UniProtKB/TrEMBL annotation:
Molecular-function annotations in GO: ABC-type phosphonate transporter activity; ATP binding; ATP hydrolysis activity
Protein name in UniProt: Phosphonate transport system ATP-binding protein
SMART domains reported in the protein's UniProt record: AAA
Keywords carried by this UniProt record: ATP-binding, Cell membrane, Membrane, Nucleotide-binding, Translocase, Transport
Location of the region described as Disordered in the Swiss-Prot/TrEMBL record: 248-277
Length: 277
């Protein structure tokens, strides 16, 4: 349903961020995009909705050749791709409901949205979505009164109000604690399953990616170096993606430290044993 062929991005500075990316994402598939800083993950996600212009290659969403569009047609195509951001991108002084409704800005006319008059069906759907993401009691709260996890739930509801065909998710858990991160990833996964919605999730946390994605794509220096199932992600493959590291050990307490519980560090072994929290 989403197909990338030969996508290359070279920034005007000369940085080559992506090289000849070939990728097909079927309907309903949740794909995690992992890789070290600077590997090109954000660039790839942003090329799909053309927030970043690919230098070469083609991007197709169902029957629409995204790379050929401009003006109104591009705006329309972007509506079919919901974006969820690391820093939530909410308007702090607006209520939760108004933030969610802003997901419809591309549909209602400028004056209507300026006057904040949204069609009844959009308001009804926003209520349903806020209920679904677990925020039915926060509808009238200002966005800046919410916790990080609640803000991300608003971001998810806003993206879904667009009725997207595809979700583009950029480090959704980077600012969240481990438990909230898991809840957010679980929510995204469940919503994708309920709606047969495909998602590309750019994420640094490999354990979360393994736990909640159907497929993992590893980028290194702008190239795909792994594309497979979460269960296929071995230490060797992690080394191919990120470089040399001892992936299977957890830190030992120092001799003079009390034997407190070690900090949670997900390991492949722990995950295989179902030990991830
Ligand atoms: N606007 C830009 N202008 C020039 N170079 C850029 C720009 N944005 C990104 N780059 C370069 O493109 C490469 C890929 O960057 P990108 O942000 O896509 O990587 P990333 O994998 O998302 O990194 P991170 O995990 O740190 O967010 C890097 O070398 C980066 O310096």
């Amino acid at each position: 349903m989403l197909t990338l062929r030969g996508v290359t991005k070279r920034y005007p500075t000369g940085d080559r961020a992506l090289t000849d990316i070939q990728l097909t994402l079927p309907k309903g598939q949740v794909m995690a995009l992992i890789g070290p800083s600077g590997a090109g993950k954000s660039t790839l996600i942003r090329c799909v909705n053309r927030l970043v212009e690919p230098t070469q290659g083609s991007i197709r969403l169902e029957d629409t050749e995204i790379t050929r569009l401009s003006g109104n047609a591009l705006r329309q195509a972007r509506r079919s791709m919901g974006m969820i951001f690391q820093e939530y991108a909410l308007v702090d002084r607006l209520s939760v409901m108004e933030n969610v409704l802003s997901g419809r800005l591309g549909y209602v006319g400028f004056w209507r949205s300026f006057l904040r008059r949204y069609p009844e069906d959009a308001v009804a759907e926003a209520f349903r979505l806020l209920e679904r993401v677990g925020l039915p009691h926060a509808i009238d709260k200002r966005a800046d009164a919410l916790s990080g996890g609640q803000r991300q739930r608003v971001g998810i509801a806003r993206a879904l109000l667009q009725s997207p065909k595809l979700l583009l998710v950029d480090e959704p858990t980077a600012s969240l604690d481990p438990k909230t991160s898991r809840q957010i990833m679980r929510l995204i996964r469940e919503l994708c399953a309920e709606r047969d919605l495909a998602a590309i999730i750019n994420i640094h946390d490999v354990a979360l990616a393994q736990q909640f994605a159907d497929r993992i794509v590893g980028l290194r220096a702008g190239e795909i170096v792994f594309d497979g199932l979460p269960s296929e992600l071995t230490s060797e493959i992690l080394t191919t993606i990120y470089g040399e590291e001892d992936w299977d050990t957890t830190p030992e307490p120092m001799d003079d430290e009390p034997a407190a519980a070690p900090p949670y560090v997900p390991t492949l072994q722990g995950l295989a044993a179902g030990g991830a929290r």
